[in-house]
Write a structure and sequence with these properties.
Blueprint: E1 3-8, E2 12-19, E3 24-25, E4 30-33, H1 40-52, E5 59-64, E6 68-69, E7 72-73, H2 88-96, E8 100-104, H3 105-116, E9 125-131, E10 135-141, E11 144-146, E12 155-156, E13 159-160, H4 162-165, H5 167-172, H6 177-195, E14 199-203, H7 210-213, E15 223-225, H8 232-245
Helix pairs in contact: 1-2, 3-8
Bound molecules: beta-D-glucopyranose.
Length: 262
């Protein structure tokens, strides 16, 4: 079975067929800019444009930058409000004519890191944190995902954490690496106090620049950079779609397979 993974990000919609056994892309990925405003209809068009570049796939895994419960998108912090309560998995399945599994972007990236990357063979509680347009989080206990955690919206010093420490804010405010490391430390130490994870895996755009600010982080929990970088969302979405296709026993929590027309 061939599975297409598609990642809806703040600046781009990217996709490729995925080897779900090795956790690798089977073809060069194709990217289109995320439409602005990122409303349901225009993002559907962008996803369909990416999907038409590939053929011969059986099902599709798609990431979404918000809460997804039973294929319905519940929040829209960094996309258009038309996504709130949209039956998105069904709409994608009808548009693409294939079964679709839809899940939160950080959950997908974390699933890929846990299966193939920085979180492989790690037991206990580990947390994926994506620092990009927003802050995405995913929690795994002994490799099992607790979906839709949304800890990027914790309140820190009276502010939504993603307005303090996302990569978008670092760029917009032209923060030095020292200042940014201080903010990320402030955020991670708050999470550390609440949850005591064994490991933080940092992904998102800024993970490529880990050497610039990781040495400046002041927290007790070990921190590692995501290893799958830009492809974690695509790979995690495809792995989740495969688990969904395997049926209830192998189904990814929080994501449902939706068959076209159903
Ligand atoms: C959203 C999360 C998402 C994160 C990264 C946040 O604003 O609430 O659901 O995972 O951004 O895209």
């Amino acid at each position: 079975m061939t599975i297409l993974g598609i990642d809806i990000g703040g600046s781009g919609v990217k996709g490729a067929p995925v080897d779900t056994v090795r956790g690798e892309l089977l073809d060069e990925r194709f990217r289109v800019p995320t439409p602005q405003p990122a409303d349901v209809d225009s993002v559907m068009d962008a996803v369909a444009e990416v999907a038409t570049k590939f053929d011969g796939y059986d099902s599709v895994g798609i990431t979404f930058p918000g809460v997804v419960v039973d294929g319905v998108t519940r929040t829209a912090a960094n996309v258009h409000k038309s996504w709130i309560d949209a039956p998105a998995a069904r709409l994608f399945a009808e548009r693409l004519g294939k079964p679709v599994t839809l899940l939160n972007d950080a959950d997908a990236a974390g699933a890929a890191e846990v299966a193939f990357g920085a979180g492989r063979d790690q037991s206990g509680l580990i947390m994926m944190v994506t620092l990009g347009t927003g802050i995405g989080t995913a929690l795994f206990m002994d490799g099992v995902l607790l979906p839709n955690t949304e800890l990027g919206h914790l309140e820190i010093d009276g502010k939504d954490a993603e307005l303090l420490a996302s990569d978008r804010v670092r760029e917009a405010d032209d923060l030095s690496w020292e200042k940014y490391a201080h903010r990320v430390s402030r955020y991670l130490s708050h999470v550390e106090m609440l949850l005591s994870p064994r490991l933080f895996i940092i992904g998102g755009g800024v993970s490529k620049k880990a050497d610039k600010y990781f040495p400046l982080l002041q927290i007790r929990t070990p921190v590692v950079a995501a290893t799958l970088l830009n492809n974690a969302g695509i790979i995690g979405a495809a792995v989740s779609a495969e688990q969904a296709a395997a049926g209830p026993g192998g189904q990814h929590p929080g994501a449902i397979p939706v068959h076209a027309g159903s």
